[in-house]
Amino acid sequence: MSIPSFGLGTFRLTGQAVIDSVKSALELGYRVIDTAQIYQNEADVGQAIAESGVPRSELFITTKIWVDNYAADKLIPSLRESLEKLRTDYVDLLLIHWPAPGNGVELSEYMTALAEAKKLGLTRQIGVSNFNIELTRQAIEVVGKGEIATNQIELSPYLQNSKLTAFLKEQGISVTSYMTLAYGKVLKDPVLADIAAKHKATVAQVALAWALQLGYAVIPSSTKRENLASNLLARDLKLDAEDMARIAGLERNGREVSPAGLAPAWD
Question: Which of 90, 92, 219, 256 satisfies CB 3.0 to 4.6 Å to 60 for a cystine?
């Protein structure tokens, strides 16, 4: 099993907005959908998938367990609720959403429950999100090497996370990049605009192509059909060594997401 490189994110989208986004994406050829319990849109995503007519076997669906459901007696029941909302018997990938140190549930407890969900066939693969190097190490110790499929982390040209990504590569754990456009901040970057003009591409395509060329999976979201279609073209954009070096120079530790009580001590 592996992590597909290009998918649709659904963060901050609910109701008709997410239904339309998912349906448009599926019509355009997307087959990977990323959601989470805390997004409160799993039922909408499930409805959109059902109405799209795309067979479940063609899809790769990811959801994430929220911190309130980390306890051993809550994780699997909460996943079963998610599956019901998504109208499926299993997800392809199940993630722990945030490490949430100090929330009263030990890492070993929730990682053991996550592994149990896989054994029960409720998910094909398991992984983590927003884990630093030390917590990823601890998670590997609990579930075993080769069991963690991905660490989904914030990554953009402004936050390149080189220590963590190098560690994940060394461990054979895929990197999934979220917030690859840094809430749209990178879209105004003159260096990226220059590279985009050179390739007759959009700045969003350049940022996504950069992440793809580094071997990361990306899950951009949009409510606009034209942007969903445009983002897909990033898969065909090949940046040269000079482009990649110029983007490497944009690192500024520009983190957008670090909620108190949920985030770890970042590397």
Answer: 92
- The pLDDT tens digits of the residues spanning 156-188 come to 999 999 999 999 999 999 999 999 999 999 999
181 vs 158: CA distance, rounded Å = 9
Written as six digits, the tokens of 129 are 């999100």
Is 39 labeled as catalytic in the residue annotation? yes
Q: Which of 39, 70, 158, 178 is catalytic?
A: 39
Q: How many whole angstroms separate alpha carbon 77 and alpha carbon 74?
A: 5
3-state secondary structure of 36: coil
Instruction: For the chain, list the domains and their CATH numbers.
Output: 8-183+215-220 (3.20.20.100)
Termini Cα distance of the chain: 28
Instruction: Give the type of residue at 60.
Output: F
Q: Is the pTM of this model over 0.85?
A: yes
